[in-house]
Amino acid sequence: MPTHQAFTPEKVAAIKADIALGLTHKAIGARHQIHPSSVSKINRGIIGKRALPPAVPASSMLRPRGGSKYTGLVPQIHALREQKYSVKEISQKLNIPTGAVNYHLYKRPNTSSSEGALPNGHINKHVATGIAYAETERFVAVLAQRLGVPADFLRSRLSELLGRSPIRGASGPAN
């Protein structure tokens, strides 16, 4: 049974006629493919005074996400800032909240987290560690293939091959 449905005046009249015949709400609901509680609501007059509009998702009523409703004023905000206006003066001049002015003047650049680089140009240490680990594994696999030695053997002897422990701060055999 559909959960959201517009009841046209004709459909309401047909359901009321079935109610007048003495059919049960369950039978009427099955006949018209609606829930018996909807039949009850029509019988009590909650539904049927006027045709209800079709259901609309609540998300369609909201403002689209992203940005701000003041994004059209961004060039003016920056132009006024270059003319040495304060944030408060800009907000008064453009008739917008000071928070909106601050947001557009000082927001961080949009960077995706998959790039690994932070807005200040540094690389996240966890991303860097993962890259280093992957490159080391790739190097061990290539070296094992060229030397004809099992990769597990090279991996176990990695600290000896490097001349130090691959883990920072740990002491290992040094040459």
Q: Kindly state the number of beta strands.
A: 0
Q: What Rg is obtained from the alpha carbons, in whole angstroms?
A: 35 Å
> Assembly type of the shown chains?
single chain
Strand content: under 5%
How are the elements arranged and paired?
Layout: H1 9-21, H2 25-32, H3 36-44, H4 74-82, H5 87-94, H6 98-106, H7 125-147, H8 151-156, H9 158-162
Structure description:
The longest helix is centred in the last third of the chain and has 23 residues, at 125-147. Among the domains are: 9-44; 71-106; 125-162, no CATH class. The model has no long low-confidence stretch (mean pLDDT 77). Helices cover 51% and strands 0% of the residues. With 175 residues, it is mostly helical.
Quick take:
The protein has 175 residues and is mainly alpha-helical. The chain has helices spanning 9-21, 25-32, 36-44, 74-82, 87-94, 98-106, 125-147, 151-156, 158-162.
Give me some keywords for this one.
single chain; mainly alpha; 0% strand
